[in-house]
């Protein structure tokens, strides 16, 4: 879905009339002109297909109002100048960088937004809908984060599909009636609401409100209300919590002091104490008891480690492990490879061992 935005301003202090925005022949926006200057921004989400846009202004009485639109943007492109706007087939020239309409009676400027090829966003949204209402007066509407994405009336039905960013979004279905009269069933129905490939059950997590709250009937959300009222249902999508990032580290100690290498005598036995810690998101490093602990003395030659002998590992009552290791090789530099397993995490670290000649 692509965002369509229009900044509009009406000079109508001495005018009575109205201003409408039509999308593909359907009324998406209506503004009374009642002897006052007004302005605002219209926003709607549109599909990737081509769309016919109409800006219609009507004078009932008084002086002719002036409609000025200084911004018409679609999919982050300036369509005020990108396409040609026309009245009765005649191109309209911009005035001071704006599309300006001043009707003697009524005027409509038309323009076509081209088809887009945007990549689908990661959160698919779809639902089935139907409306049975007075055409162009009582409307079924769908909003995403208070931005209109569908508006229709009369006898109509369809299947909506689009995609959103994978972040918090509030989806609202709304039925709105004008102040009088009604036709057909005078309601709207919604079903098969699917968000992020998950079917939203009708009886969970919905907020039902308006002058007349909707009801669930035969697997559908039914929206209906009296004259000059609304009925709406909304639900908020919350993205799943990211998996907790858990890191495990090994600290080596001698006499309760942390070390990063140790000197020992060749052909002798030494020990190193090992403390295993885990860092959980939003927390700090905390000692844990691993399910597995092992040690091995290794040599190192041109990028390759070679095993020499295994360590004996003993669990200490104070929560650490002691690795007992005999140096069975001549003087040189070696490494004590330590492997621990915490949950599904396997951590491997090496401590440098400098074996000296035993004099």
Summarize the structure.
The protein contains one helix and 33 strands. It is mainly beta and 359 residues long.
Task: Describe the structure in your own words.
The protein is mainly beta and 359 residues long. 1% of the residues lie in helices and 63% in strands. The chain has one helix at residues 79-82; strands at 2-11, 15-23, 26-34, 38-46, 51-62, 66-74, 77-78, 86-87, 90-91, 99-101, 106-113, 123-132, 139-144, 147-152, 155-164, 169-176, 187-195, 198-199, 207-210, 215-217, 220-223, 230-237, 246-254, 257-259, 261-265, 269-280, 285-287, 292-301, 304-310, 312-315, 321-326, 332-342, 345-356. Strands 12, 15, 17, 18, 20 and 21 form a 6-stranded antiparallel β-sheet that branches. Strands 23, 24, 26, 27, 30 and 31 form a 6-stranded antiparallel β-sheet that branches. Strand 28 and strand 29 form a beta hairpin.
